[in-house]
């Protein structure tokens, strides 16, 4: 796969980016709406849509006069059901996108280095595994005709002053540390960081801020690994395993399994 595009027109001026950060309270998930308003068709995409707020997001797309073309996921989520499938039933022309490494179902699959075009604006795909095996970060382009400062949609790989857990779904603290430091912290320091979740009311950070102040990923690798093996993560994981063994059809196991299976395509949702 190379580039996904809805147009071959070349930009004459810097594209005008429409950007909205949308919040789903139950799972504390951020969905992002981006569109190229300078293009005649106003092509748009949604990053990490949630099924429970899909109608709200689609109403906004209509209100702004945008043409939704893609529903994109940063990874296979375990805490909410993606809105991609519902969106596709209501907007039949929309294509779902996820990383090839996720082993999930979608219409289109991306790999590191691919570009997803919507009008004259594009997102570059960067592999950031560690929270899950197939996590990717989507980064706006660095050309003179691209929105500046750059923006990175980090999924659960990098949160504001934190990061996603690494104890299930093929997670690895080694991989997460390397991913963030090689694929995100190498971006310009003024790059705006937009995560898939926040639980403290934060909305945006920058590469420079997280390099300095992230209490986990600003540390050296061994310290980071020790942090990720500390009580908050592994006591929950231990409780989860014990409860699953003691209780047939554990409510916790079934909930995670149901959501993951919906999102990776074993149940229809892509």
From TrEMBL:
MF terms in GO: metal ion binding; sulfur dioxygenase activity
EC code(s) of this entry: 1.13.11.18
Any single Gene Ontology cellular-component annotation: mitochondrion
Compartments where found: Mitochondrion
Reported cofactor(s): Fe(2+)
InterPro entries for this protein: Metallo-B-lactamas, Mito_Persulfide_Diox, POD-like_MBL-fold, RibonucZ/Hydroxyglut_hydro
Metallo-beta-lactamase domain mapped to chain residues: 28-197
GO BP terms: glutathione metabolic process; hydrogen sulfide metabolic process
Keywords per UniProt: Acetylation, Dioxygenase, Iron, Membrane, Metal-binding, Mitochondrion, Oxidoreductase, Transit peptide, Transmembrane, Transmembrane helix
Reactions the enzyme catalyzes: S-sulfanylglutathione + O2 + H2O = sulfite + glutathione + 2 H(+)
Sequence similarity: Belongs to the metallo-beta-lactamase superfamily. Glyoxalase II family.
Entries under CDD domains matching the protein: POD-like_MBL-fold (cd07724)
Primary location class: mitochondrion
Enzyme class (EC, first level): oxidoreductase
Annotated TM spans: 233-253
Name of protein: persulfide dioxygenase
């Amino acid at each position: 796969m190379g580039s996904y595009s809805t147009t071959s027109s070349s930009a004459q001026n810097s594209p005008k980016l429409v950007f909205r950060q949308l919040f789903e309270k139950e799972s504390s998930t951020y969905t992002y709406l981006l569109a190229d308003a300078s293009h005649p068709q106003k092509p748009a995409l949604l990053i990490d849509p949630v099924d429970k707020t899909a109608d709200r997001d689609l109403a906004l797309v209509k209100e702004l006069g945008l043409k939704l073309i893609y529903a994109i996921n940063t990874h296979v989520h375990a805490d909410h059901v993606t809105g991609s499938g519902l969106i596709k039933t209501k907007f039949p022309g929309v294509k779902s996108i996820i990383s090839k490494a996720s082993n999930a179902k979608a219409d289109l699959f991306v790999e590191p280095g691919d570009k997803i075009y919507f009008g004259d604006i594009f997102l570059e795909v960067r592999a950031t595994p560690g929270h899950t095996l197939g996590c990717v970060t989507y980064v706006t382009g660095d050309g003179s005709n691209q929105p500046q400062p750059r923006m990175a949609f980090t999924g659960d790989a990098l949160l504001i002053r934190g990061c996603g857990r690494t104890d299930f779904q093929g997670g690895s603290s080694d991989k997460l540390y390397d991913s963030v430091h090689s694929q995100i912290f190498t971006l310009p320091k003024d790059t705006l960081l937009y995560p898939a979740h926040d639980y403290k009311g934060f909305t945006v950070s920058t590469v420079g801020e997280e390099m300095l102040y992230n209490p986990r990923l600003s540390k050296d690798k061994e310290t980071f690994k020790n942090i990720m093996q500390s009580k908050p993560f592994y006591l929950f994981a231990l409780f989860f395993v014990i409860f699953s063994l003691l209780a047939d059809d554990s409510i916790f196991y079934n909930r995670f399994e149901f959501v993951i299976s919906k999102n990776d395509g074993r149940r229809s949702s892509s």
